[in-house]
Predict the structure.
Amino acid sequence: MFWGKIAEEQLNDGAIPDLRRSAKRTKVLNMWNDPEVEKITRGKFRGLLIKKATEVKGRTLDLGCGMGWLSLELARNGMDVDGVDISEKRIQIAKDYLEVAPEKKNFGSINYIVADLNKIVLEESVYESVVVWDALRHIAEIDRLVEQI
């Protein structure tokens, strides 16, 4: 419920789950609320993550996908993505945006899943790559999750 409430606040403040269309929001509480500051501070790392993930073709798992910006970007690069998040609201936002998201030439696919990463059971040998952006620090059962991966 917490993450759903945060998602609602972000949407009401103009956030969209699309790197290519993000705009500065009215409530700049931290660096990730300002796309220009975010690009300066973490853009290089975000770009490297996307580049490395898309070098490995096939199916990828996006852990803690939130509203789906990384899953969307990977799919735009031809990846087949399973995006997992604990928040039903964030997953619904991701699904809704996916329906209207532009720039889908050479698009792979996205399957959004609501699941608790502390309890998730992953099928063996399904994914060629696993990505995560700013979510692992929220996982209490990190050792269990790593074993699943």
User: Anything to note?
Assistant: The longest strand covers residues 80-85.
